[in-house]
Design brief:
Helix content is about 70%, strand content about 0%. It has 3 helices and no strands.
Length: about 80
C-alpha cells in the first residue's frame, strides 16, 4: 500500500520541499517586483530635466566661455524665464 507521498520515498520528499521553496520564492519575487514597479513613479525618482533648464544651462556655459556678453546673457535669460 502507498504511504502519504505516493511511494516516492525520501527523494520525493526532498523534491517536494525544494519545489515549495521555489514556488514561494517566485511568489515573493512577484510581490517585490509589483511593489517596486508601482512605487517607482512616486518616491525617489527624479523628474527629467525640463527643456528650459537645459537651455539655461547652455546659456550659462556660453556666458562662462565668453561667447556672449553680460547684456546679451541677461536678455536671453529673461526671455527663457518668461516662457
Amino acid at each position: 500500500m502507498y504511504d502519504w507521498n505516493g511511494g516516492w520515498g525520501p527523494g520525493g520528499r526532498i523534491a517536494m520541499g525544494l519545489m515549495m521553496l521555489v514556488f514561494w520564492g517566485l511568489v515573493a519575487a512577484v510581490v517585490v517586483y509589483a511593489i517596486r514597479a508601482t512605487s517607482r513613479g512616486r518616491e525617489g525618482a527624479e523628474s527629467p530635466p525640463r527643456h528650459d533648464d537645459a537651455a539655461l544651462r547652455i546659456l550659462d556655459e556660453r556666458f562662462a566661455r565668453g561667447d556672449i556678453d553680460a547684456e546679451e546673457y541677461t536678455q536671453r535669460r529673461d526671455l527663457l524665464r518668461t516662457r
